[in-house]
Amino acid sequence: MDSSNASEVQKTKIETSGELDKIMYGYTSEVNVMEEENRILRETVTNLKNELNKFQTLPYLICEIKDIIRGKAVLSLKNGNEFLVEISTNIKKESLRPGDFVTVHQKNLVVMDKIDISARFNVEQFVIIDKPETLWSDIGGLKDEINEVQEVIELPLKKPELFRKVGISPPKGVLLYGSPGTGKTLIAKAVAASTNSTFIEVVGSELVQKFIGEGAKLIKELFDLARSKAPSIIFIDELDALASQRVDIGTSGEREVQRTFMQLLAEIDGFDYLGDVKVIGATNRKDILDPAIVRPGRLDRLIHIPAPNQEGANDIFKIHTKRMRLDKVDVKKVISKMDGMTGAEIRAVCTEAGYFAIRKNKTSVTTQDFLDAVEKVKAIEEKNEEYLHMFG
Ligand code: ATP
């Protein structure tokens, strides 16, 4: 082989080994990418398996320990039943006390873990706490009713010594009853504002539906809260959902409502006539109330809040048009068309009239806008009534 041939062979060798390197490098990096992809896929599968396991595990029940007997726990379930069950070795039996809340296995009710009650239940999340600014002058009509509330709630809160001197006990609370939208909540807020009290509002139907098994406890904590923020007004709207007369207490749901109601009575019985917590109940269904709630010493002052008469409607109209710009409105004519309307409906008419004006690109409201608004509100009410009629 001459020298030129040898260098040619040498060159080809070098080129071939360079290409081989390139191919080898290509394969190696591809393997790395695939290994990385494989790792990500395996991780995803493991995560999905874990997630699937979560969906397959049975939830634990939450129960209250009633007693510990010979190393076993007596559990009281939400429906009122009681069971004697084993305690898992994971928890120290000595650390369990009656009244503690625990998680228990669904199948055999073995106690699995103890849970911190305060982390689970905070009454302040479930009620409306407010310092209202409603003035007595924001309420139209209802002069006699307001006078009575002032006498029964406002006066004892403001001047308890007067009652001590005379030697009488004012009612612990009142029951306001009447059609929806007549101003019951408004009165309760105004009395809270005039006595500078904390206004704590709960709705009876919500309490019954949302806090199954917790109703009685919620009532207890509600009164504790009211005492800690005294002077306070506890306003229980839709009281009938809690305190209606039950013919027979058959189902566990009814027993639960009954327990909540008993707790409410116990709390009212427990506080002082001249204390700084007062209860105002409101209902549209006085006819179905359990008489126990209105016995002497409880909400024994019943005040009917009626729909407004002409004069009342006039007052309410003035209140809700105070800030509106009116264009020579024939108030008498408008009021005469609103016969039988509640305060809430009169307010709705005023707002609707404003909308009619805005739709016509005007900045003031005329008699015709009000008349159109009355028709609209009446039509809506009729529709709602038909709906209620259809579905009871
Ligand atoms: P419900 O039974 O539905 O709870 P309610 O009787 O508590 O009704 P409120 O919530 O007090 O009625 O009234 C609703 C709104 O209607 C009030 O915020 C207020 O704007 C208006 N309203 C009702 N009655 C009057 C009134 N007498 N004076 C002025 N405004 C009123």
Word description of this protein:
With 392 residues, the chain is α/β, with parallel strands linked by helices. It has four domains: 1-57; 61-115, OB fold (Dihydrolipoamide Acetyltransferase, E2P) (Beta Barrel); 123-304, Rossmann fold (3-Layer(aba) Sandwich), CATH 3.40.50; 310-389, Helicase, Ruva Protein, domain 3. 49% of the residues lie in helices and 15% in strands. The protein has twelve helices and eleven strands. It has a six-stranded mixed β-sheet. Strand 1 and strand 2 (72-76) form a beta hairpin. Helix 3 crosses helix 4. The chain is flat, with a radius of gyration of 35 Å. Bound molecules: adenosine-5'-triphosphate (ATP).
Radius of gyration: 35 Å
Mean pLDDT: 85
Number of domains: 4
- Helix tally equals 12
Low-pLDDT sequence parts: none
The CATH superfamily of the largest domain turns out to be P-loop containing nucleotide triphosphate hydrolases
Trace the largest sheet across and list its strands: 6-8-9-10-7-11
Order of helices and strands: HEEEEEHEHHEHEHHEHEEHHHH
Strand content: 5-15%
Structural class: alpha/beta
Q: How would the global form be characterised?
A: flat
List keywords for this structure.
binds adenosine-5'-triphosphate; 6-stranded mixed sheet; 49% helix; single chain; 11 strands; 392 residues; OB fold (Dihydrolipoamide Acetyltransferase, E2P)
Question: Could you outline the blueprint of secondary structure elements for this entry?
Answer:
Blueprint: H1 3-56, E1 61-69, E2 72-76, E3 82-85, E4 101-104, E5 111-115, H2 117-120, E6 128-130, H3 143-158, H4 160-166, E7 173-177, H5 184-194, E8 198-203, H6 204-210, H7 215-228, E9 232-237, H8 252-270, E10 277-283, E11 301-304, H9 310-321, H10 331-337, H11 343-359, H12 367-391
Parallel strand pairs: 7-10, 7-11, 8-9, 9-10
Antiparallel strand pairs: 1-2, 1-4, 2-3, 4-5, 6-8
Helix pairs in contact: 3-4, 3-5, 7-8, 9-10, 9-11, 10-12, 11-12
